Amino acid sequence: MTHHHFEPLLDRAHAHAGDFLRTLPQRFVGARAGREEMIAALDGPLPQAGEDAAAVLDLLARNAERGASACAAPRYFGFVIGGSLPVALAADWLVSTWDQNAGIHVISPLAAALEEIAARWLLDLFDLPRDSGVGFVTGCQMAHFTCLAAARHGVLRSAGWDVEVDGLHGAPRIHVVASAEAHVTVDVALRYLGMGTRALVEVETDTRGRMRVDHLRDILPRLQGPVIVCAQAGDVNTGAFDPLRQIGEVARARHAWLHVDGAFGLWARTSGEKRALADGIELADSWATDAHKWLNVPYDSGIAIVRHAEDHRAAMTSTAAYLIQSRGAERDAVDWVPEFSRRARGIPVYAALRALGREGVAGLVDRCCARARQFARLLSAEPGVVILNDVVLNQVLVRFGDDELTRAVIAGVQEDGTCWASGTTWHDIAAMRISVSNWATSEEDVAASVAAMLRVYRRLRSGA
Ligand SMILES: Cc1ncc(COP(=O)(O)O)c(C=O)c1O
C-alpha cells in the first residue's frame, strides 16, 4: 500500500468536506430525512466482494445532505452543541491520519506530549490546581465517570477501604448528594460505578435552578459515612450556577468530595466578564467538562480533572506485563482515562487552544453570551413571549404564550429550517431552549433566527 491508495480518496473526502462546509451556514438546519429514507438509501446485503472505495465515499457524502442535521452550523441552538473551529477540525483530520494509539507514551511520544501540554494549558486557563490529574475522554458523561471513580476511590481510601481491590461489596456506603436539577449523566455515572442511583440524596433548588445551600446544610449532618457532593456550573436549561463557594465550604467542613459538572459552565472561568459566576469552583475536588461543546472541537472530546492526582490515577490506571509504561515524566493516557487503546483526542484541544490563545477562548465565550442576551432582548419585545430564565450565560428559555402554543412554535421553527431549537419542561411548564455555543454564530444569525421564530409564533397565534 502506498500513498497512491490514499491520496485520491483523501482528495475526494476533502472535496466532499468542502461542499458540506460551504453550504453549512445557509442550509436547512434540521435533518430532512428520517430512518426510512436513510435505510432505503444506505441498506442492502453486506457486499460479498466489496465496492469501489470512491463510490462508498460518494454515497456517504450524498446522504449527509438530508440525513445529517446542520448541528455544526451557526444557527443550530439545540441542546448544548458547539461547531468545529477550522483549526480543530483540521487537526482532527491529522489525528485520524496519524492513527496513533494514544494509550501509552511509547507508541506515540507526539500524542503524549501534546496531551500533557494541553492538560497544563487547561489547568492554567481554568485556574485550577496545577498538579491536578487531567484525562481526555469522549465527553462529559465519561468525564463524570472518571471523576466519580476517583471520588469513590478517594472517599473510601479515607474510610480505610481499597475499592480497586475489594470492590463495593462490604464497603462503607457512599452517599452522593446532588440537586434536583443535576444532569442525567451524573446518575448514569453512578450506575456504571456500582453506586446506584439510590445512593443519591436530592437537594432542593431555588426558583432559578440553583442548589439551595441551606438545604444542603440540613442534609449533610444526617448522612453517615463517605459523602460525595455533585454541584453544577451551568444548568443545562438555564445556564445557572450553583453557589459554588458556599457549597465548597460546606463540603470541606464535612470532609465530603465535591465534584462539579461544568460541561459548558467551566468555560465561564476563562472570561473576565463571566468568571464571577464560577466563583469558588476551585474549592472542588474534581471537575468534568467538554471540549466538544464550548471549545468547538469536533466530537468526541470531554475532559476529566481531579485535584488529587493519585486518586485519579489509582482509579484509572491499567498495568499488564506486556505493556511498556513510563517510569519517568512521560504521560501514559491509560493512567487518566477509562479507555485503553484510544484516539489522540487531546490534539484538537491543543490546536484550538494554541490558535485561539487565552483571549480567543474568552472572546468565544463572551460572544456566545452576548448573542444569548440578544435573543432574550429581541424575543421579549414581542407581546406574549416571555424569557423564563435569568440569561446569565449562553442559555435562553423562552415561552410563547402557553404550553400548547410553545410546543407548536418549537415544531414550526424546526420545520421552517432557518434555525433549530429544542424544547424542555422547566418547572412544569413548556419552554423552548436556546443554547448559543457555536464560534461562528453572528448577530445576523440571531436576528434571522428570531425573525423565523416570531414569524411562526405570529402565524400560529393568529390561527392561520
Ligand atoms: C450540564 C451537562 N452535563 C453533562 C452533559 C453530558 O455531556 P456529554 O454529552 O458530552 O457526555 C451535558 C450535555 O450533554 C450537560 O449539558
Task: Name the descriptors.
464 residues, binds pyridoxal-5'-phosphate, 11 strands, 12% strand, 43% helix
Please outline the major beta sheet. 7 strands, mixed
Bulk shape: globular
In whole angstroms, the N-to-C terminal distance is 63 Å
Our Rg estimate from Cα atoms comes to: 23 Å
Note the run of SSEs as H and E: HHHHHEHHEHEHEHEEEHHEEHEEH
- Helix/strand/pairing category: alpha/beta
Average pLDDT level: 96
Spans of 5+ residues with little confidence (pLDDT < 50)?
none
- Strand segment count: 11
Number of DSSP helices?
14
Q: So what's the oligomer here?
A: single chain
Biggest sheet, spatial arrangement of strands: 1-7-6-5-4-2-3
How much strand?
Answer: 5-15%
**Fraction of residues in H or I helices:** 40-55%
Small-molecule components bound: pyridoxal-5'-phosphate
